[in-house]
Specification:
It is a single chain. The N and C termini lie far apart (58 Å). With 262 residues, the protein is α+β, with helices and mostly antiparallel strands. The protein has helices at residues 5-20, 72-81, 110-116, 130-142, 150-162, 173-187, 198-208, 223-227; strands at 25-28, 37-40, 64-68, 87-93, 96-101, 104-109, 119-124, 244-251. The radius of gyration is 19 Å and the shape is globular.
Length: 262
């Protein structure tokens, strides 16, 4: 199949713009039913955009909560990953969660998370049964007190930026994966796998339960990557299956900065 020069030039230009704006994209080649299509990653995540507010009893053990909070650290993570979320939490059931934070892995009530955060949105991995959720809970509780992977977070920040080169829409999926894998091995090789940052901890819990969310190393994955693994989005890191949106437990829209008066 040949793509006309002007169309190819337009796609290359769009790809360059997407790279500069840090949006991953995928180019779907024409099929019998659909023409050439460029899909762009979306960071829209609000109840007003097809979502809904839910109560805690709508959650199931194993659900993944993505959150953001009004702190400098949270804002820095969101700015660095071009995402509205900065933290990932594993719901254990019975109103309890487990998470990796600066002081290490801890378990605490879900109500505390909802009270503290500006936004809490839940996603579900299809096919998690009671036995799988129990294995996740057992492993997560066994890790309470494990140190935070500070080195992993520091290494992940430049990796998030540099890997955008591997996400241009004209790159075949296999080439993109090879590019990202090679970059990760070079840039994240010193990161530890016996300590955890938040999204690494969530992914490792699923891996330990025999239900991996992705074939990628958990040290590669940020909360933003988990967000883009949802149904209908364009993942930066491929998931074994898309995550299903459950709902928002809390949503406070970001403040609107008013312009200065005359």
């Amino acid at each position: 199949m040949r793509i006309p020069f002007r169309a190819a030039a337009a796609i290359v230009a769009a790809g360059a713009a997407l790279l500069l704006s840090a949006c991953a994209a995928r180019l779907d080649l024409p099929t019998k039913d659909n023409g050439l299509r460029l899909r762009v990653q979306s960071s829209v995540i609000a109840p007003g955009n097809g979502g809904e507010l839910i109560a805690a009893d709508a959650l199931a053990p194993g659900d993944i909560l993505l959150t953001s909070i009004a702190t400098v650290n949270s804002f820095g993570i969101r700015l660095g990953t071009f995402s509205p979320v900065s933290h990932a939490v594993l719901y254990l059931g019975d109103g309890q969660i487990a998470e990796a934070v600066g002081t290490g892995v801890r378990a605490r009530p879900l109500a505390e998370v909802v009270d503290e955060e500006q936004m809490v949105v839940a996603f579900r991995v299809p096919g998690v049964d009671d036995a799988g959720a129990a294995r996740m809970r057992e492993w997560a509780m066994s890790q309470v007190g494990t140190s935070y992977n500070t080195v992993g977070v520091l290494l992940n920040a430049p990796f998030v930026l540099n890997r955008r080169l591997c996400e241009l829409p004209l790159l075949p999926t296999a080439v993109s994966h090879y590019c990202m894998s090679g970059m990760a091995m070079v840039q994240l090789g010193a990161s530890r796998d016996d300590q955890f940052f938040c999204s690494q901890f969530v992914l490792e819990a699923y891996r330990q339960a025999g239900l991996p969310i992705t074939n990628a190393d958990p040290r590669w994955v940020s909360p933003a990557d988990l967000l883009h693994m949802r149904e209908g989005d364009v993942p930066s890191i491929a998931a074994t299956q898309p995550l299903r949106y459950v709902g928002h437990l809390k949503y406070n829209p970001p403040p609107i900065l008013a312009a200065d008066g005359p």
